[in-house]
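User: Before I run my own analysis I want an independent prediction to cross-check against. Here's the chain; please return only the structure tokens and, at the end, one sentence I can use as a sanity check.
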Amino acid sequence: MVLKMKIFLQLCLVAFLVSCNSDTKVSSSSNVETSESPEISQEQIDHLGITDVNYLSAASKRALKWPTDLGNDWFIEFDNLKPLKGDLAYEEGVVRRDPSAMIKENGKYYVWYSKSTGVCQGFGGDVENEKVFPWDRCDIWYATSEDGETWKEEGLAVGRGEKGEYDDRSVFTVEIMKYDDKYYLCYQTVKSPYTVRVKNQIGLAWSNSPDGPWIKSKEPILKPADNGIWKGDKQDRFAVEKKGDFDSHKVHDPCIIPYKGKFYLYYKGEQMGEKITFGGRQIRHGVAIADKPEGPYVKSKYNPISNSGHEICVWPYNGGIAALITTDGPEKNTIQWAPDGINFEIMSVIPGVTAHAIGLNRDADNEKDPTEILRWGLSHVYNSWNYQSIMSYTSKRKVEHRAKGE
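Assistant: Structure tokens:
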């Protein structure tokens, strides 16, 4: 009798739970809003195609929180990359990658980039004497062009340091800033040996001319956080006792923007013990701020300022800073904007970003519209794992969708 009673009570409980989860009307207290609430307008209902405000899916609830004043000013599409002509056309055996932004001086465009030669062996070879990555054993070179299509390679701009210096292994992924008739190149540095636990840093060089000569900073202007702890002595970058800050392993892809009387150094951080999440690699961006271009740079307490991204691509717009976020993380392939240069919000989601390591055209009128600076510029492409070349990209605003012939 006792057993039958237990079975009966269990069946009653199951029936109660099923009835609670059935497709019945959701009370307004557990939903976003009902149709009687002024916060859900008929215009929103019509725009989002909501069938019944009493039955809102999680997607509809999120959509109701979207900003209503964005329009499509920030929505663009990238076209396919196009090869460059002249000295920057693909050359077998040579790596040219990570173009800086372009600036226009003396009636021609200037660009700086990472350059190396030869194949790379990865970490399985002799890391002391061989080349690990395409960006290993690089120097920074530059080229000029009158039309942005046909380029003349002018030569070496910034080379690697002497043995034992912080930049003796590679200098690469460069960005240009002009300020008060002076030119500044910031870039990544690696000190030998190039192991999986090596900590990349950021260097700086300056000149009174875009053609140099360049004076290098004696010390890095930015270093990784020092609060992560490796586990064991084996060269395993995923073995950690403590991961530390978002940039505890590496600081990459620097770009300095003069902003609000200060200098904002945006950079990519890589964390010790980096994980793969639902958005891909754990890559985030940060910013460090200085009173003068040479530093000292102090990392923002708000870091990280993104939860996604890869190469830094930022530009001033409408009193704030805009950023193209690509490749990694749950918010990849978005354009974001921060009115204060720190607190970024998504402005648009971009389909199929074909351009990588973007070199912006700083000569563009970036206040014309939010994405004017992205109309054309430079990118790099992997011709193979060993060799990359610089190409050009274009983009366009997308305001409507029409069928062919419509």
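Sanity check: Residues 76-397 form a domain with the Tachylectin-2; Chain A fold (CATH 2.115.10.20).
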